[in-house]
Design brief:
The chain is α/β, with parallel strands linked by helices. It folds into 2 domains: 62-86 and 98-284, Rossmann fold; 310-421 and 457-504. The protein contains 17 helices and 14 strands. The strands form 3 sheets. The protein has a 7-stranded mixed sheet with strand order 5-4-3-6-7-9-8, sandwiched between helices. The chain has a 5-stranded antiparallel sheet with strand order 10-14-13-12-11, covered by helices on one side. The chain binds S-adenosyl-L-homocysteine (SAH). InterPro entries: METTL16/RlmF (IPR010286), SAM-dependent_MTases_sf (IPR029063). One of its GO terms (cellular component) is nucleus. Keywords: Methyltransferase, Transferase. This is U6 small nuclear RNA (adenine-(43)-N(6))-methyltransferase.
């Protein structure tokens, strides 16, 4: 469950039932409800949305009833992703965020939740089902959100993403999101329900258009990937939820086959039994932190996660901190001044990269950030610069190749207790989603071993030994080529550790 999810500690049904008589009627005993009863889960969704978000929704009996905690997890993860990879702001204040919800359903749950949670969010929302569309229209209207949510009937469209709206929008759209139809056929849906010994569709109340699509979720999302290859940076982050772990593998394969290396994999845990995943990809060069992009803990997904964007340089344990830390700071600044930067600053203000990675960062000593034009520290780059200088001296005009931007941040952390990753995993919440959606339950928590020195958070818990000492964390913030990033990490580690060794002698 996302640390900011209001439902992370569960919900008291007894209390909620007292406040919302509709749910009161559905109470089983004094403190529970029947998750197999469609009316009960509908009333639960209504009560939860009203209490926390002041949202009023009506749901047709024959349409999917959204599990609120899970839908909120996706919205919060998306917000983390946008903040961690934010675009430059042209005006002060929170920038307007525009997203597209593909297949919004009868509830229009994602646009409603997104708008209720974030006052600067706006949506386009699509669907192909006329009954769902009219119900969504009513839900948007009764919450007064018509000016922030634009509903699109795409039933006659041949593409999944609404191309006309995207290409005519005056700026890039911030994200797309989707909870795709999961199953390849009604048989697939029924057999999957049977496997879990849940009466088929008992509490799901999904109609066939909602639950079934040709080729299932993989085909649906792969069609979005295909379309994104054409739309590229018209959308900053394309994302979709996925209900099966195997689908994550297939969609990631598809992205890699098409050379899309900037992708993220989220994992949403609702209650003790249900896991969902989200895959996001971008044609832009902003990199998300590992705490957002490498969330799955299962070793089965390990090879499908994106290249880590965090690198740790442990500092000598035996050193006196009051001399070590200023020395390290000096070495970092000096090392970064040695190669050409477009921008480089070392600051006493905590950078968001480190704040979002650990929640509270009391043990951050200091941090800095910079942007270069490609790899400017390599020997080849130095030789190239020398040659350019010589050419200039001798009056020859030579072409300066445009290098792609590379961005980094660095933080020096004071050891002893070490930071604790924030994302609480596997906490039990009272209202689990018990729908036909929970295919492929994968609750084996494998604590990832350290990936060389690249760390994946929060999957890898800090090793007790390593956390005793102080360390530098490097964060990759901009760029498409992980070889440049790896070279950067190697270079800084060598410079700092050699520098410290020299100071000692
Ligand atoms: N977003 C809602 C509903 C998800 S069910 C929720 O999370 O609860 C999937 C939805 O996708 C259904 O409403 C279905 O009608 C819609 N859908 C199926 N194919 C679609 C397509 N090609 N374009 C847009 N929506 C589609």
């Amino acid at each position: 469950m996302h640390p900011k999810n209001v439902y992370k500690n569960g919900v008291s049904f007894a209390q909620l039932a007292k406040e919302y008589p509709g749910l009161g009627k559905c109470l089983k005993g004094t403190s529970s409800i029947d998750f197999h009863d469609p009316e009960s889960i509908r009333q639960l969704a209504k009560a939860l949305l009203k209490k926390e978000f002041n949202l009023d929704i009506d749901l047709p009996e024959d349409r999917l009833c959204p599990g609120v905690p899970n839908r909120l997890n996706y919205i919060l993860w998306l917000n983390d992703l946008l903040l961690d990879t934010h675009k430059e702001r042209s005006s002060p204040g929170p920038p307007k965020v525009t997203g597209i919800d593909i297949g919004t359903g009868a509830s229009a749950i994602y646009p409603l939740l997104g708008c209720a949670q974030f006052p600067n969010w706006n949506f386009f929302a699509t669907d192909i089902d006329s009954k769902s569309l009219s119900s969504a229209t009513a839900n948007i209207a009764q919450n007064g959100l018509e000016d922030r949510i634009t509903l699109l009937d795409v039933s006659s469209s041949s593409t999944i993403l609404p191309e006309e709206e995207i290409t005519s929008y005056p700026q890039p759209i911030d994200f797309t999101m989707c909870n795709p139809p999961f199953y390849t056929s009604i048989n697939d849906m029924l057999s999957s329900a049977k496997k879990k010994a849940v009466p088929p569709l008992s509490a799901c109340t999904g109609s066939t258009t909602e639950m079934v699509t040709d080729g299932g979720e993989v085909t649906f999302v792969n069609r979005m990937v295909e379309q994104s290859l054409k739309l590229r940076e018209k959308i900053r982050w394309y994302t979709s939820m996925l209900g099966k772990r195997s689908s994550v593998e297939k969609v990631v394969e598809k992205l890699k086959e098409n050379g899309v290396g900037n992708y993220v994999v989220g994992e949403f845990v609702q209650g003790a039994k249900t896991k969902r995943w989200a895959v996001g990809w971008s044609f832009g060069d902003r990199r998300a932190g590992d705490h957002i992009s490498r969330q799955p803990t299962s070793h089965l997904l390990k090879s499908h996660l994106p290249f880590p964007t965090t690198f740790k340089i442990p500092l000598p344990i035996d050193a006196n901190l009051s001399t070590l830390l200023p020395q390290v700071e000096e070495l970092m600044k000096k090392s970064c001044a040695d190669f050409p930067n477009e921008t480089f600053e070392w600051s006493s203000v905590q950078l968001p990269y480190f704040a979002t990675m650990y929640g509270a960062v009391e043990n951050l000593y200091s941090n800095g950030k910079g942007v270069t034009s490609g790899n400017t520290w390599a020997r080849a780059a130095r030789r190239r610069r020398k040659k350019l200088e010589k050419d200039a001296e001798e009056g020859r005009v030579s072409e300066v190749p445009q290098e792609p931007k590379f961005g980094f941040a660095a933080g020096i952390f004071i050891g002893s207790s070490g930071p604790t990753p924030t994302a609480a995993k596997g906490t039990l919440s009272a209202q689990e989603e018990k729908k036909g959606h929970d295919e492929d339950q994968d609750m084996v928590d494998e604590t990832d071993a350290w990936d060389n020195d690249f760390i994946s958070l929060p999957a890898s818990s800090m090793e007790p030994e390593a956390s005793k000492g102080s360390y530098i964390l490097l964060r990759w913030t901009i760029g498409l080529d992980h070889v440049v990033w790896e070279s950067f990490c190697g270079m800084l580690r060598r410079k700092v550790l050699e520098g410290l060794a020299e100071m000692k002698t």
